Amino acid sequence: MKGYTIIDHTYDVVVVGAGGAGLRATLGMAAQNLTTACITKVFPTRSHTVAAKGGISAALDNMGDGDTWRFHMYDTVKGSDWLGDQDAIEYMCRNAIPAVIELEHMGVPFSRTKKGKIYQRRFGGHTLDYGKEMAHRACAVADRTGHAILHTLYQQSLKHNATFFNECFALDLIMDEEGVCRGVMAWNLEDGTLHRFAAHIVVMATGGYGRAYFSCTSAHTCTGDGNAMILRAGLPLQDMEFVQFHPTGIYGAGCLLSEGARGEGGYLTNSEGERFMERYAPVAKDLASRDVVSRAITVEIKEGRGVGPLKDHVNLHIEHLDPEAHHRLPGITEIARIFANVDAAKDPIPVIPTVHYNMGGIPTNHFAEVLNPTPENPEQVTPGLMAIGEAACVSVHGANRLGTNSLLDLVVFGRAAAIRARELIEKGAKVKPLRPSDGEAIIAKFDSLRHAKGSLKVADIRLNLQRAMQMHCGVFRTAEHLQEGINKIKEIAASYQDIHLSDTSLIWNSDLVEALELENLIQQSLVTIESALNRTESRGAHARDDYPERNDVNWLTHTIAHLKGDSVSFTYRPVHLYTLTPEVEVIPPKPRVY
């Protein structure tokens, strides 16, 4: 198209995203001599994996508990409220042990026990002997685990000569008429050029979309761009109604206070000084799963036992912990000081539940291949396309993710994607070249948005969206409230057509970047809130006041959602109530209590 410089590239594999998942896949592909490009809209070590604090789970049993991967699998299935696929969960928990040891050998500087082994702390929902007592399973680098893993994976990727396209914004997938992914189109923010990538396989590793909400722990870059690209390609997303609220976001700021604080012995209190979690989870108490703790805090506030002048938050206490424990939580004390003006060694920290993680995303199998389910074949694969990390829905997290399983998900399935890619790509096979017309529609749409001269600013539309999602699709939900939210979000989607961009340049145009991200957020928000209205039960992070019970008869199933315009349609896909090997038995659904 006139006015644009278009540069073509050909690689065996193109990875979109350079967080933990994207880097582990990039490393794995490059290490197997597949020509590999990684496209990322921020410099790799600025990706949001850097914010993961508490640890990465693996049943190493370094603390002498008697832990095993079978206990880890049970906790993950239970945490998922039985919506997780048990074959994928078995794969993840079994591979957790070699995956963490592999990270150690790559150079991740794990905290150590006095015997020199990887230090492991307790974490919410992780137990021994099928729920009888809390397990020490979270392998930690103080409270900066994601930071350490991200830097190590980036260094290893450079060592294996992967090619990085930093500060490049992926616009859309290039699909052919047969539904095969042939590549991806991206915009280079540094010089304003457009890039067409042709590849055997495109890997989506674009993270979650927490910024659809007003209060979240996510970086401003967490706009779920890959999920929206999938929707625009005519492919579905899975289980989008399940949005995890982390119980301990800093009050007023939303910044994450790691679950590692409670893992080290921290606890929550209400305005009466009561350790109220003992009423909601008698065994696990403050280390119950995140959805349970978030709902408990919300109930305490609703019933008038909140802390502060507005009685709208609770307190997290770590001031009683010994200096050694505080030494393992440097990030928490720093965040408390900066964002809450609290000395965590002396005073409690004000906290409130805040959006933290998206369990739903791009449906995949445990080989990381993207699925396009049909009633006849619910496991139908989309050729040339993979997804990993928070962008994907394997599904190992089901209706609620256990803490520390996110970092594990990244490295296990990033590695799985690389293994599968090597099997699928024949040695010496040439990438099918793109046609001259491929990507023309993407560029035309990009050009139209760049020159949009409506009356509404990106920031104003985005704020309306975030407030609508926060108010209408939160910790507790009802049909009436959700329907009001759907109406508002459809109005917001319509208002996007009246957007105004003041900057028409192609180099470092942040106005255009945010407009592209806003479209992605709107599309995912529509699918999320419609999915929440559609699922008439309470399961995991999805709590319906008007349907308070879990309904396994009608709803032990994955939601498959397609978006066309502003209309969402649903089909369903069976949950895998079977294991990968006969070495472990299926864990049948039962009441989920902590």
Polypeptide structure, described:
This protein is of the alpha/beta class and 594 residues long. It is 33% helix and 21% strand. The protein has helices at residues 20-31, 69-79, 86-106, 145-159, 225-232, 260-263, 277-280, 290-302, 323-327, 330-340, 405-424, 440-450, 458-472, 479-495, 510-534, 552-555, and strands spanning 6-16, 36-40, 56-57, 120-128, 133-139, 163-166, 168-175, 181-188, 194-204, 237-238, 243-250, 267-269, 314-317, 349-358, 362-363, 369-371, 381-387, 392-393, 476-477, 543-544, 557-564, 567-574. Strands 1, 2, 6, 7, 8, 9, 16 and 17 form an eight-stranded mixed β-sheet that branches. A hairpin with a 2-residue loop joins strand 21 (557-564) and strand 22. Helix 3 crosses helix 11 (405-424) and helix 5 (225-232) crosses helix 15. The longest helix is centred in the last third of the chain and has 25 residues, at 510-534. 59% of the residues are buried.
List the topology elements:
Blueprint: E1 6-16, H1 20-31, E2 36-40, E3 56-57, H2 69-79, H3 86-106, E4 120-128, E5 133-139, H4 145-159, E6 163-166, E7 168-175, E8 181-188, E9 194-204, H5 225-232, E10 237-238, E11 243-250, H6 260-263, E12 267-269, H7 277-280, H8 290-302, E13 314-317, H9 323-327, H10 330-340, E14 349-358, E15 362-363, E16 369-371, E17 381-387, E18 392-393, H11 405-424, H12 440-450, H13 458-472, E19 476-477, H14 479-495, H15 510-534, E20 543-544, H16 552-555, E21 557-564, E22 567-574
Parallel strand pairs: 1-2, 1-9, 2-6, 9-17, 15-18, 19-20
Antiparallel strand pairs: 3-5, 4-5, 7-8, 8-9, 10-21, 11-14, 12-13, 13-14, 16-17, 21-22
